[in-house]
Amino acid sequence: KEVTYSLAKNEEWFGEKKYNLGLDFPNLPYLIDGDVKLTQFTAIMRYLGRKLDMYPKTEKDLARCEMLEQNIYDLKTLRLAWIAYNEKFEERKDKLLETLPVRLAEVAEYIGEGPYAMGDKITYVDFIIYEILDQIKLFSLSFSRPDHFSDPRITEYMKRMENLPNLKEYFESPDCNAKRYTIHDPFLIWALGRTTSGAARIEKNFMQ
Amino acid sequence: LKVIQELKSSGINAEYGDAPKWFGEMKYNMGFDFPNLPFLIDGDLKITQTLAIARYLGRKLNMYPQEKDITRCEMLEQNMMDLRTGLSRIAYNPNFENMKGAFIEKLDVRLGEVAKFIGDGPYALGDKITYVDFLTYEFLDHLKALSPDHFKEGPIVEYMKRIQALPNLKKWFDSDDCTNKTYTINSPMATWPGLPNATQ
Predict the structure, then answer these.
(1) Which of A47, A63, A88 has the CB atom closest to B56's CB atom?
(2) What is the pLDDT confidence band of residue B15, given thresholds at 50, 70 and 90?
(3) A91 in contact with chain B, both atoms CB, cutoff 8 A
């Protein structure tokens, strides 16, 4: 029920695999399922959602689900990546810390009682939301803003996701890469590490 | 923004929110879960997010891939979004001039992949036009503004010509209202706003 990534070592990937797998748009992550060869995180998630019956059923639900999916992904790519890769990191980081509560409140409002993002039934978008909320939480905590995650709608939702049997098992397994991998490539480490307090935060939060 | 317009040119009426008015009153008073531009109101459905809107209209206007093509379609869709995000990332970066080179260099490979995917077309997924054609066209157009050299000839250029020639789109491009003449690709506040698109 969860997506496990096969993480190829950098040299191996760029050396030979990348262009030899028959992928239209070689990239990580990728999925090979029989003769279906896919890249692009969102495309993979939607594919698995349809395949594993974790996909919205009605037209209206689908439109709303995709809106939520895009909005959450916005939060990750535009926000976290924006500041991580940018030289004006400090300034932008502060701005982001101020605007995050509004965006998180929108998500909290949308999810409401749940139990899942789209209501009673779990869908692929729940996994995306959970993962990205988790990343944002790491960011917020790194900058001493636990208040970002004080809304019970969000915290209860995250707990529910964490307690899904398969996910729980995965998080507790020695294979679990959640503990070992950083959010982005080393750039984020670099960006955060440019301040001494940033470096301390990295050690505390990323290397557990 | 243009994507929506392009899709809508095939059927529906577009409405543009004026920026000051949007931030002044509209943004939070219209009942959106995630207030943003562009937005779509269709009956009691209120959605934002370019992609969600494009896909919704695609399904509604019979410009959606068949089941066997859905996955490929979504992969192309995401790939184009990736390229667009990559462009935005450097466009809003004060260090744009230094980053431009590396990005343009990668375009050789990335555009090659897209060209191969589309092939002879005529449309991205083959015979039938889908919402992803409008998305692909628009983002290719943005990339063209950045690096016109990559768009001198070849399958991508031919593809773009075909899309431009669609009757409703052509009408839109020729009209006085057409935002191509006035809107920048990125926000006017970006390091590289991007020239108003010339569709020639």
Answers:
(1) A63
(2) very low
(3) no
Q: Does B168 touch chain A (CB under 8 A)?
A: no
Nearest to B168 by CA among B30, B10, B35: B10
> CB contact, 8 Å: A187 with chain B?
no
| pLDDT at A202 exceeding the cut of 60 | no
Instruction: Tell me if B82 and A63 make a contact (CB, 8 A cut-off).
Output: no
Beta bridge partners of residue B48, listed in sequence order: B39
Give the rounded distance of the alpha carbon of B192 from its chain centre: 17
Please name the residues in contact with B163: beta carbons below 8 A apart, sequence gap of 6 or more. B133, B134, B137, B169
Residue A110 contacts B where some CB pair is shorter than 8 Å: yes
Distances (CA, A) of A166 to A1, A31, A161, A174, A176: 6, 19, 10, 14, 12
- Most confident range (mean pLDDT) of A82-91, A109-118, B41-50 is A109-118
Q: Is A204 helix (H, G, I), strand (E, B) or coil?
A: helix
What gap in Å lies between CA A152 and CA A157, rounded to an integer? 8
Q: What is the ipTM of this complex?
A: 0.77
Q: Is A22 on the interface with B (CB under 8 A)?
A: no
Q: What is the reported pLDDT for A88?
A: 66
Are the C-beta atoms of residues A88 and B94 closer than 8 Å to each other?
Answer: yes
Nearest CA in chain B to A84: B89
Strand partners, B40: B47
For residue A79, give the chain B residue with the closest CA: B89
Partner residue opposite A67 with nearest CB, options B49, B72, B85: B49
Fill in the amino acid letter for A91.
Answer: E
The amino acid present at B93, given as its one-letter code, is: N
Option in A43, A71, A74 nearest B71 (CB): A43
On average, the pLDDT of chain A sits at 73
Contact A66 B55 (CB under 8 A): yes
Q: What is the dihedral of CA A17, A23, A24, A28, to 10 degrees?
A: -70
Q: Please indicate if any CB of chain A lies within 8 Å of the CB of B188.
A: no
Closest CB to B74: pick one of A42, A68, A70: A42
Mean pLDDT of chain B: 78
Residue B17 CA to residue B27 CA, distance in Å, equals 10
Query: pTM for this one?
Result: 0.77
How far apart are the C-alpha atoms of A98 and A120, rounded to whole Å? 32
